[in-house]
Amino acid sequence: MPIEFKKNRAVFRDEVSVEEAEGLLEWLQTRPTAKADLASCSHLHTANLQVLMTAGTGISSWPKNAELRAWLEPALKLGN
Amino acid sequence: MKSSPVNPLLEQFLSEARDLLENTGKKLMELEDAPNDKNILDELFRCVHTLKGNSGLFTFPEMTRVLHAGEDLLGMVRSGHAAYSRELADQLLEAMDLVGVICGDIESTEQIDSSRAAESKLMTEALRKLMPGPSQSDSITSVSALTAVSPAATNTSVSPADIPPSGFPPLASLPEAVRLAAIQQCRHGDRLHWISYRPERECFFHGDDPLNSARQTPGLIWGHIVLLAPLPPLAELDTYSCLLGFDLLTDAPREELDQYYRYLPDQVEIAAVLPQELVSGQRDTDGAKETPSAANSIRSISDDDRIALEEIVAAQRQILLLDDRPAWHAGRLKAVAEVLANLSQAAGEISARADIQAALAEDISSGHNTLLLAWLDAYKSRLPDMDMSNLPGASDRFGPGPDEESADVSPAAENGAGKAHAEEGIKFGRRADDDPNGVKFGRRAEDAIAGPKSLKVDQAKIDRLMNLIGELVVSKNALPYLAERAESQFGVRELSREIKGQYSIINRIADEMQDAIMQVRMMAVSFVFQRFPRLVRDISRKLSKDVQLVLEGEQTEADKNIIESLADPLMHIVRNSLDHGLETPEVRIAAGKPAAGKLTIRAAQEADRVVIEIIDDGKGIDPAVIKQKAYEKGIIDEAALERISDQEAIDLIFAAGLSTAAVISDLSGRGVGMDVVRSAVEKINGSVVLESQLGKGTTIRISLPLSMAVTQVMIVESDGQLFGVPMDHVIETVRIPRNSIHAIKQSQTAVLRGRIVPLRSLNALLGIATIPKANLDDELAVLLVQAGNTEVGLLVDGFHEASGVIQKPLNGFLSNLSAYSGSALMGDGSVLMILNIREIV
What interface predicted TM-score (ipTM) does this complex get? Predict the structure, then answer.
């Protein structure tokens, strides 16, 4: 599973595809305080990013991939 | 059946591509042994380069992209910017495999499987990752710059996008660090592009991932995400509607960007970023109001640029002053106009383009250069006075001066222009090899690879020749019958003799012709062998074994069909040897052997057969294990378990359904190994023998006929019909008195040279309801044949001569008749059926 849903934390791994977006959205809708852990994420589909941005999900750890982080950080910080 | 491509150019490309790929693979392997050999590297580079160039002739972006990356990577290795490594070779080999697969796609369906696009992209990335070049370091700097973005800048960046109607890139949103780096790059002569990527809302349904596309944009220096619409409340979010867009800054050439975004042209806006826009950085905010005057802007540029500008103008003037009128005159004018327009734009005179275009249109229609020349002179007069002492040095730096350039006019247009980053859009007069991305025509001469002078002929043509010569041989054989008839029936002995004389001449020519055609069909076993270095390398690495491969007798030749049908069995055997035979270095050392296993594949010609041996010095085959396995799988019964010899036990390895590997690996051990090998070899009238010594190694010998064209058959008669039995199966012909045939239970046997031989009636085997005829002495004709490991006596009515025939496989419905391996035409026009002994006995 590219996204592992823990109690209040979604752990993204490797490449997260568009199919995950719907599940992520549903999960986040019921957990407003949930955080996302992107540390081992190498890529996430735009749809997932949109969900995170819309939900204003906090990021517990940024991607280790510096290039991805550089993309995501400005976009996601807006929601915080 | 694969349909051959309709387009002959494509056909040629595929055929060449295959050769080039093969050569590339070979060179890569060679390079592995001699990583510093410049010649191999050069040849390798040339192969990939040519292949890439050729692929550019067609629309195979998937292929070209991979090859391009491969070429770049090799280029860096060649220039010493990247080190050759095993990983690099692995990646390149895989890339070539992918290209091969794509070639296969094209060949079979004439289009590329849609999944290849993603594969090729991954491959390209992987290749690019190995490059230490500027693209990577750039993305790193961009990342550092990007992470340093101030909150204020971030806020402006993630705001609903507004592109100024003028279409100029909103450079103000560029973080300062990125902007400075970009200016630096411009100084180095790189040309930057601003991409505004606005994916359509439905793009997810098309399988697009805009973020991924943006991340993979070639030459990416900087990028950020913009919101295309305000974010809805979470509950109303439609996950499948794209709300994000991207602004990107890259240093990739325009062509590459167009190519990269070629499926999304309507969602992408690409604009060239002019250096001074970066310098001022303010163009979109207040640039429109205070466009500097031409003189001012020119004065504001550096001395170097001014010299370049002066030179370009002079060069263009030189071109315009040429008074010849070649066919490409209009193109030349367009080039000049484009250079001037870009030049003035670069210098800040945006409005000048319209004037130039007008002058161009007028000049093209009139066939003169007057208007452009006038504009140019006016422009020149506006240029500030130059410090002439700067010129000579500048000339050196900027390539040939105006005087030299006039000799070679059209490239000159681009030569100077490139220095001022003002050549955008010039498509004429460009030297083919200046641009690594473009399609290259006329490149064959420079890329010629020294190779054997040989003719490529479609195999079908050779087969046709083969068939024709077969028919010739058959019809020629009718002549002796004719001579016979002339003498016996018509009594003209003179004519008979003449016919025989002519026959012997035709016979000689036909024989030679047949021989010559056989020679054409001959192929060296290296065709099959050449894939082994790669196979052994890959497999041994996967199994973490150390294997030294020795190939011998690669020049041994045999018929093409034989060689080709050898490929798969050999592959099986080599895999088996690597997987089961050779041990890991630790085990080998413990057993007192050298750590590296040795696998020898040897080919040699012995009389009219080719013998191929695959020898490994691995752990050998334990007959006890085989026996036990065979017993467990029900291949042998308990009695046989006790009885059979070690060699017989080892031969069981060829039995169907026997796999010795304890676990099924992805290499071998699915129980479809050696029995397939045996049947494949036997299909081409070959035989395979396995010898093994426990702990010492295994030798597999495959013996094959040199050619399948002429089969020696023994002709026998049964129930009034003639049948051919391949000579390979015939042991001897004997006549056995009826009274020495004994019946044991249902079957008949006879004792022959002290051995009991089972006798079967050919009539019975073929379902003919007559009993074999005996001769006058009440003896039955027995043809002793070898079927596999058993000898069987076939009861027939009588023996005829042995004859060389050209065996044709049975076609269509008849091919289901397994009792016959084929048919052959006899000299008198009759058809001889060739028995498939193994099947009927």
Answer: 0.90
